[in-house]
Write a structure and sequence with these properties.
alpha+beta
């Protein structure tokens, strides 16, 4: 049971419904740890996205070694090597 601030009314606590802290120091430590974990997770996601987005691509993989045939708008076929 806890007593509400500014009231004489007591309320029962359900330990399964929420977390309860017995001191500000314990709450502070838990909140700082959770905040740190969230910040680390966000930085890890940002780093992964930055690597995927800005890492140099292998230029060799974009070059076709063999010529390929393309169809031009006028119906002409042309061989191109990229």
């Amino acid at each position: 049971m806890i007593q509400l601030a500014g009231s004489q009314k007591s309320v029962p606590l359900d330990p399964d419904a929420a977390e309860y802290f017995t001191s500000v120091e314990i709450l502070r430590d838990i909140l700082v740890d959770r905040t740190r974990a969230q910040v680390v997770a966000m930085l890890d996601r940002a780093e992964t996205l930055a690597i995927e987005t800005f890492s140099p691509r292998d230029e060799e993989s974009d070059i076709l070694e063999e010529p390929t045939t393309v169809l031009l708008p006028d119906g002409t076929r042309a061989k191109v090597k990229i």
